[in-house]
Design goal:
Elements: H1 5-14, E1 18-20, H2 21-28, H3 36-39, E2 48-54, E3 59-64
Antiparallel strand pairs: 1-3, 2-3
Length: 66
């Protein structure tokens, strides 16, 4: 199981389009780090993808894979 699986399930089950870093920390129990860039490809298995990571706004935007 991936350390990000709880986040992927949350995004999929709640049809999330944008989430803050703080919300991610609440879901996972840890802050996202550079490894997020490697693991984000797993999200496609759930029918979603990471569209944008904003360091300024501290958010991640998701979209459904078309």
């Amino acid at each position: 199981m991936s350390k990000f699986e709880p986040l992927w399930k949350y995004v999929c089950e709640n049809d999330i389009s944008e989430i803050s870093f703080e919300q991610i920390k609440d879901i996972l129990g840890f802050d996202i780090d550079h490894s997020f860039l490697t693991y984000k490809k797993e999200l496609k298995e759930y029918g979603y993808e990471v569209k944008k990571i904003s360091m300024k706004d501290k958010t991640v935007k998701f979209g459904k894979v078309s």
